[in-house]
Amino acid sequence: MKWLLIAVIALILLLILIMATKLKIYIHFYHGNDNDHLKIQFKAWFGLIRYKIEVPLIKLDDNSPTLVVNEKTAAGPQEDAPKQDTKQFSAKDLINSLHDTKSIINHIVSIHKIIRKFLKRVTIRNLEWHTFAGLGDAAHTGMLTGALWAIKGSILGLISHYMKLKTPPSITVTPHFQFSVSQTAISCMIHFRVGHAMLAGIKLIKYWKGGRPDFRTKPLSALSDDGTKTV
User: Fold this and answer.
1) How far is the C-alpha of 113 from the C-alpha of 121, rounded, in Å?
2) Are 69 and 86 in contact (CB under 8 A)?
3) Is 77 exposed, middle or buried, given 0-12, 13-18 or 19+ CB atoms closer than 10 A?
4) Is there a domain that residue 14 lies in?
5) What residues contact 97, with CB distance under 8 A and at least 6 apart?
6) Element of type H or E holding 13
7) Element (H or E) spanning 165, and its range?
8) Which of 41, 32, 50 is nearest to 182 (CA)?
């Protein structure tokens, strides 16, 4: 009985520790013409728990109408020796992804309060978004620059409205009038308590039990009512 009580207390303390843990997510994205690179790092407990995802290349396959993604993942001390995986996505996969995205958006509209309450507890720091753009024509480049500033302003407004933007963002758009160029770099740090994410997840699961969407892609099909029928 004594050992059972100790085990229960230990589990409760562990659960409290996990819920109080602050998860930090570092996002780095770079796009330069045909060169794309995405790196996402997850850190907790002052870096003792680490996980990294790298997507260094996104391109079209020359031999088939598919999208090729080279992905690297690494956890903890093995970050210097990541596992590499290459995935291909056909047109059907992309269409199913769009279908699932639409289903998710429709449900998000209904559960807006849950999502919004969680996002209010998400903090963003060190947001930087720098863009170099040019179309080779001064007039067209000027219009493109204005459009980019408008888009960035709108996105920044949404971020500051739904989440906590703790530090002033660094946003630039640099036009190039002499030649065509398309480069953008985005980086930021996002952090929140694991307990807040768990609570939001529990509320979402309770809501979705009342009417789950029809997902078609493999990662999400398990959440559908007929997920066992999807291959």
Assistant:
1) 13
2) yes
3) exposed
4) no
5) 89, 217
6) helix 2-20
7) strand 164-165
8) 32
Q: What is the pLDDT of residues 49-76, one digit of tens each?
A: 899 988 766 555 555 555 555 556 666 6
Are 114 and 200 in contact, with CB atoms under 8 Å apart? yes
Residue 125 inside a domain? The answer is yes
Domain count, the chain: 1
pLDDT in tens, 98-118: 666 766 666 666 678 888 889
Contact 131, 173 (CB under 8 A): yes
16: in domain = no
Yes or no: say if 44 and 21 are a contact pair by the CB < 8 Å rule.
yes
**d(Cα 117, Cα 119) in Å, to the nearest integer?**
6
User: Tokens 């013409």 appear where?
Assistant: 33
> Please, are residues 174 and 133 in contact by the beta-carbon 8 Å criterion?
yes
pTM: 0.68
Element (H, E) at 24: strand 22-32
Q: Are 73 and 82 in contact (CB under 8 A)?
A: yes
Q: How far apart are the C-alpha atoms of 211 and 225, rounded to whole Å?
A: 8
Domain encompassing residue 118: 24-57+95-219
pLDDT (mean) for 160-179? 92
Structure tokens at 124: 């963003």
Q: Would you say residue 80 lies in a domain? A: no
